[in-house]
Write a structure and sequence with these properties.
The protein is α+β, with helices and mostly antiparallel strands. It contains twelve helices and 30 strands. It has an eight-stranded antiparallel β-barrel with strand order 1-2-3-4-5-6-7-8. The longest helix is centred in the C-terminal third of the chain and has 20 residues.
Length: about 675
């Protein structure tokens, strides 16, 4: 049940701002012309070879007793015209190991005019090592003679043989390149797939996917917290290779979206300002290194960085292509959460286009877990840590990523977005009878029942979740849960991990909780004591299960409620690990209760928002970090008092509706 609350990386850096370090300047290159999309298959890794500090390849001795490929004798440079239909012409690349670097990226261009260019980049080692020369095609073989290396004369001869989409070195100086040689893969299979749906079309190489199919997405209403990703206008979505997407938006899954711009702006003021910020970026044609780039669908965490950022044109618009990473706290990067995205707007400003693909690179640092003093040291250097990642990623060629970044950008360039959205039926007008008698839904599962207003949800489904063993290293931080009953709403999948932003009702056996860890048993006892005394003000954090690895910043709107078979306390809260602004994207309602016989522990979580708070940290510009830190306690207390004084209907959803649902809960006796 581990959980990381949504935190602003910008604000997280307040605590470490004194450490210095500035992000690298990111200049956006001129927009390239439209190009036919291509793709690159994943390159296999081969035996590492060492490299010198200047980035040039070094000699590697061949293993004793093994045959080696001899370097061709020095002869005149072969010259022969390249056949116009030669299947060897094209771009090739490979991501290969290196002894003193995370890897080396080799790109080879065999041009139709008989010239050849090979560039080798050792990740994190500076400028590429560039060799140029000529090549001769002999059937499936390309005999290449490189006559210059970084502008200096040389005689380096390599013969590659084409095997499917791959070039395999067959004649080369093994003392220089080792026994594995330089295996490369063609950039793109050349098999371009075109897809279209109701006025939206694009193309991509089969190396990226075998098919993409579009569907209409119905609008999701504003009351589902649009500023946090819960709302959207009608749209078009393309899914690749018939993959099933999760119920929540996952930017690491391949997908393409098109939305009406006016529909996005009508969702919420923060969404509207995000779209306008993107429009300004596209008009200026540049993106600052520290500038946040708006992304839709929204992601309930913070944009940590962007790299390989380029403004590029697509068929009927302009957008920005970049690699990015989102996180909820200061922690080492997890490479599986890095993704590529394209965010664009059509020239007539009518449609918003977004595309997402997972992306990887050996230049990404390995994941690691840190705690205690090691974490404190990491936090102090966090800004430099990010700057180094961005600098390294920006120094890579397109071939330094899997899939090849050029293929993703070419797919984006091919997008043509003029969707033919179906007319939306007008929303039914409430009748006098329906206005006077709101619909109430009831649900029951394994002896647990409750009812709720249709303004909260349209359905609820109960499930039994199996025991999750506690991690002995962190049991008090949500490392386990006993078997329990959980209800999700509107068909959402419910899992053991508890997110306070996902509406759920859960019923745990008290003995099962106590057996998880002594500290959790202590929290159950603390809740029992609180419910016995029922103080009007509570200075200490109110007990919450599961425990979170962050601090309970405040708990306004405390109210003690009786449900049919027990009692508990509900309140509004916000968790943080630093002095972050208090915003809607981290606000939630929770109820923590015990059955009268103390056999069951009941929890309810529901995401909240109010017009009295900003939606996200982007809406709280902080110009003076020191002044913010000095005034934070007063700010926290003032916000606590503000929220405590609001009526129930000042929140969405209305607190009174949640209270009514809780009062109807019945658990087994």
């Amino acid at each position: 049940m581990r959980f990381l609350l949504t935190l602003s990386v910008v604000i997280l850096l307040i605590a470490v701002a004194a450490c210095g370090g500035t992000a690298p300047t990111l200049a956006t290159p001129p927009r390239p012309p439209l190009a036919v999309p291509t793709t690159v298959p994943t390159s296999a890794l081969v035996t590492a070879t060492a490299e010198p500090a200047n980035g040039a390849p070094t000699a590697t001795l061949a293993p004793q007793g093994e045959a080696t490929a001899a370097a061709p004798a020095a002869t005149n440079v072969p010259v022969a015209p390249v056949a116009p239909n030669s299947k060897l012409v094209g771009s090739y690349s490979g991501i290969l190991p290196a002894a003193d670097a995370p890897g080396r990226i080799v790109t080879l261009e065999l041009a139709l005019d008989g010239t050849a260019t090979m560039a080798t980049v050792f990740i994190g080692k500076g400028d590429p090592f560039v060799e140029i020369g000529t090549w001769v095609g002999m059937g499936d073989r390309a005999a290449v003679t490189f006559t210059q290396a970084n502008g200096q004369p040389q005689d380096n001869r390599i013969t590659w043989t084409l095997q499917g989409p791959n070039l395999v070195t067959t004649e080369y100086d093994q003392a220089q390149y080792g026994s594995a040689g330089l295996p490369l893969s063609r950039v793109g299979t050349g098999d371009v797939i075109e897809t279209s749906f109701e006025g939206v079309s694009f193309s991509f190489d089969s190396g990226l996917a075998q098919l993409a199919e579009g569907v209409f997405l119905p609008p999701r209403p504003v009351e589902n917290a649009p500023a946090l990703g819960g709302g959207a206008p009608q749209g078009v979505r393309f899914i690749f290779n018939n993959k099933t997407l999760p119920d929540f938006f996952d930017p690491t899954k391949p997908q393409v979206y098109v939305y009406p711009v006016d529909g996005l702006k009508a969702l919420d003021p923060s969404v509207a300002s995000g779209v306008e910020a993107l429009q300004k970026i596209l008009a200026d044609g540049t993106v600052g290194a520290d500038e946040q780039i708006f992304v839709f669908p929204l992601i309930p965490s913070s944009q940590v960085f962007h790299a390989q950022t380029r403004v590029i044109d697509f068929v009927n618009g302009t957008g920005v292509s970049f690699i990015t990473y989102y996180a909820q706290d200061v922690a080492p990067l997890r490479s599986e959460q890095v993704f590529w995205t394209f965010q664009g707007i059509t020239l007539d400003n009518k449609y918003y286009v977004s595309a997402f693909m997972p992306i990887s690179s050996p230049a990404l640092p390995p994941a690691r877990d840190i705690t205690g003093n090691e974490y404190d040291a990491f936090a102090k250097e966090y800004k430099n840590y990010l700057n180094n990642i961005v600098t390294t990623l920006n120094g890579l060629p397109h071939a330094g990523f899997i899939p090849n970044l050029a293929l993703l950008e070419n797919m984006a360039r091919s997008i043509n977005a003029s969707p033919n959205f179906p007319e939306q039926a007008p929303a039914p007008q409430p009748t006098a009878a329906s206005a006077q008698a709101p619909a109430i839904f009831a649900t029951e599962y394994n002896g647990v029942s409750f009812s709720f207003d249709n303004a909260l949800a349209q359905s609820a489904q109960g499930v039994t979740l199996a025991t999750v063993p506690a991690d002995p290293n962190v049991p008090a931080l949500g490392g386990g849960s006993p078997e329990h009953i959980a209800f999700g709403f509107n068909g959402a999948t419910v899992i053991s991990d508890v997110s306070p932003f996902e509406p759920t009702v859960r019923v745990y056996p008290v003995e099962g909780l106590k057996n998880l860890d002594p500290s959790i048993a202590g929290e159950v006892l603390a809740l029992k004591t609180l419910l016995s005394v029922q103080p009007t003000t509570v200075n200490d954090p109110i007990p919450v299960f599961p425990p979170y690895n962050a601090a309970q910043v405040f708990h306004p709107q405390i109210k003690y409620l009786n449900f049919k078979t027990g009692k508990g306390v509900r309140f509004v809260t916000f968790y943080a690990q630093d002095i972050s602004p208090i915003t809607n994207d981290g606000l939630f309602y929770t109820f923590q209760g015990l059955s009268a016989d103390e056999k069951f522990y009941v929890t309810v979580f529901w995401h909240l928002r109010t017009d009295q708070l900003p939606n996200s940290y982007q809406d709280v510009p902080i110009k003076d970090n020191d002044a913010w830190a000095k005034g934070y306690e007063k700010y926290r207390a003032d916000t606590d008092a503000l929220l405590n004084g609001l009526p129930p209907d000042a929140f969405t959803p209305n607190l009174a509706l949640l209270d009514q649902m809780i009062e109807s809960i019945q658990v087994p006796q």
